[in-house]
Amino acid sequence: MTHWSNNSLIHRFDKLADKADTSTIFQPITEQLNALEMELLQSLQSDQQTLFREWQDKGLALEYMKKEWIYLKGVQDGIKILSQLHSE
């Protein structure tokens, strides 16, 4: 895949991720998760809160990278399938 197409796919993934973040479908579980997070943070000391936030940020970054990788592999697979169908 070319650099241009990779950037286009990443941009599309980012747009879909933003759409998922604002979707009302996930709102109930998001609110529950936020409430639990606040409860957890209030039970921690300041240095533990900082450590928890760092751990949380790294975990979210890893999940985002995994989802982006899966998305790109799916697009690559789709392109391979289409090219095979068109070559027959």
Can you describe this structure?
Helices cover 89% and strands 0% of the residues. The protein is mainly alpha-helical and 88 residues long. It starts with a helix and ends with a helix. The model has no long low-confidence stretch (mean pLDDT 89).
Largest sheet: none
Rg over C-alpha atoms, rounded to the nearest angstrom: 19 Å
- Note the total helix count: 3
Mean pLDDT equals 89
Series of secondary-structure elements, N-terminal to C-terminal: HHH
Structural class: mainly alpha
- How many beta strands in the DSSP annotation? 0
The share of residues in extended strands comes to under 5%
List the helices and strands and how they pair.
Elements: H1 3-22, H2 27-42, H3 46-87
